[in-house]
């Protein structure tokens, strides 16, 4: 049997803050962003892109990150802000809030993706950074677990949509529920499938 080699992520300079988001694509719920500054004296094994981890592994690592990181913060942009600003600008806003909420100023901020918010911190965008940079991977895990928890709560409030299963993404089951029940207050009205349902409702 061939064993997979361990995933070794770049640690980055001291004072580095990693930033990532969760929830840009769904039709419902806020977009979350996390900012994490890791403590080099307390390394965390197993960090990688949250999408490549099981739910159990993400939860375990999220607990370790909260306990052992030098600083961390998770922030959001609401559905109303997404509809008002558009999803890109709302994501940038959530990232700004996350870094501002750290309680300490990072020396440098590395953001997953191909662009950074317009902010005062020295920063760079890192494409696929959540699988290359430990601090970004940690931010990916925190953003994903917090958003999943929120969508579970939303499922309890609006069980007809199945939010706990698809986390608000446009699955066939979610689209069918939208057609049957219409949009709830946590649906993004500026997103095409939701807008289509709302437009259809006005015809009757």
TrEMBL record:
Check the record and name the Pfam families matching this protein. RNase_HII (PF01351)
Q: Which UniProt keywords apply?
A: Cytoplasm, Endonuclease, Hydrolase, Manganese, Metal-binding, Nuclease
Query: What does this protein's record comment on cofactor binding?
Result: Manganese or magnesium. Binds 1 divalent metal ion per monomer in the absence of substrate. May bind a second metal ion after substrate binding.
Q: Entry's CDD domains?
A: RNase_HII_bacteria_HII_like
Q: Which residues bind a divalent metal cation?
A: 20-21, 112
What does the record give as cofactor?
Mg(2+); Mn(2+)
Q: Which residues form the RNase H type-2 domain?
A: 14-203
Q: Which GO terms describe its molecular function?
A: manganese ion binding; RNA binding; RNA-DNA hybrid ribonuclease activity
Main location class: cytoplasm
Position of the signal peptide: none
Q: Where in the cell is it found?
A: Cytoplasm
According to its UniProt record, which reaction does this protein catalyse? Endonucleolytic cleavage to 5'-phosphomonoester
Gene Ontology biological process: DNA replication, removal of RNA primer; mismatch repair
Cite a GO CC annotation: cytoplasm
Q: Which domain of life is it from?
A: Bacteria
* EC number(s) per entry: 3.1.26.4
Can you tell me which family this protein belongs to?
Answer: Belongs to the RNase HII family.
Q: What does this protein do?
A: Endonuclease that specifically degrades the RNA of RNA-DNA hybrids.
Return the HAMAP family for the record: RNase_HII_B
Query: Can you name this protein?
Result: Ribonuclease HII
> Which organism's genome codes for this protein?
Thiobacillus denitrificans
């Amino acid at each position: 049997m061939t064993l997979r080699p361990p995933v070794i992520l770049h640690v980055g300079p001291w004072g580095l803050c990693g930033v990532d988001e969760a929830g840009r694509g769904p039709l419902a719920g806020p977009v979350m962003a996390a900012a994490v500054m890791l403590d080099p004296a307390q390394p965390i094994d197993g960090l990688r892109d949250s999408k490549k981890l099981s739910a159990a592994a993400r939860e375990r690592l999220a607990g370790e990150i909260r306990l052992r990181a030098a600083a961390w913060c998770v922030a959001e942009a609401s559905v109303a802000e997404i509809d008002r600003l558009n999803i890109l600008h709302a994501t940038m806003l959530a990232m700004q809030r996350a870094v501002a909420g750290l309680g300490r100023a990072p020396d440098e901020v590395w953001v997953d993706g191909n662009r950074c918010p317009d902010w005062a911190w020295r920063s760079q965008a890192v494409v696929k950074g959540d699988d290359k940079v430990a601090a970004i991977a940690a931010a990916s895990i925190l953003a994903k677990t917090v958003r999943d928890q929120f969508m579970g709560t939303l499922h309890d409030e609006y069980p007809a949509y199945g939010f706990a299963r698809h986390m608000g993404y446009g699955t066939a089951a979610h689209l069918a529920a939208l057609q049957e029940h219409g949009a709830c207050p946590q649906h993004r009205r500026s997103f095409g499938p939701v807008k289509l349902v709302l437009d259809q409702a006005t015809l009757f």
